[in-house]
Amino acid sequence: MNPTLPGIAAILAYAAATAALVKSFNSDYILSPVSKREKLTTLVLGWLAALFHAVSLNGMCDRAGHVNFSFLSTSSLAALSIVIILLVTAVTKPIDKLGVVIFPLAAMIVLARVVFPEEAHVLKTHSWQMNVHILVSMLSYSFLNIAALQALLVAFQDRHLRRHQSSGLVRSLPPLQTMEKLLFQLIGAGFVLLSISLISGFFFIENLFAQHLAHKTILSILAWFVFAVLLGARATRGWRGQIAIRWTLGGFLALMLAYFGSKMVLEWILKKG
Length: 273
Fold this sequence. Notes:
The chain is mainly α.
């Protein structure tokens, strides 16, 4: 299927969801009928965008079952995973405000895939073990990506509260303690999934160097170590605030370089699949 039409529809829906979310910044964080309606509108538009986004990715898998894991296709799939996790989590957690960053980024990635068609990089190894490894890796990246954005939002909220500034966004957020608790819940979920991803990779990937995966593995282990230290220090020393934010962003940077930085270098600079 041509990804152009569903891609354009996804971009428009993401724009509408972002606009609805920005409008909700005028409401304080209270369980009022108005805030509930605004959140529901944002989630409905977000799910509509995710649906069109998923349809635009239909061509990633051919009839033979081979999957195209080119850079933009993989980035688009990761963006969709992040959006879906955000929408599901937002039903019970006060995490919907992150959509103001996630929705536009997803829209830009969809647009890039529509405007700049890539040569397919086909993954022909399609065992169930490899499928599990890829799925868990994508989920771990998605959770930790949301955690990194949550860390930035916590930093923004903390800075404004210290300066006694109360912008529309700050007023619409839950208390800072709740935001930090949610941050570590996201990190914990991502860390468990990243651990499973690394273990499954060692068992199921036969030759890391032949498949240009050594650098990805090293950076992923570095990210795992950073998050392990952060969670351990949170439990034993009560780490929070700026130090927790810095470690979260550092760990996610290593993971982003592992998953997408190395892939971009291989495909766009070294021209290797």
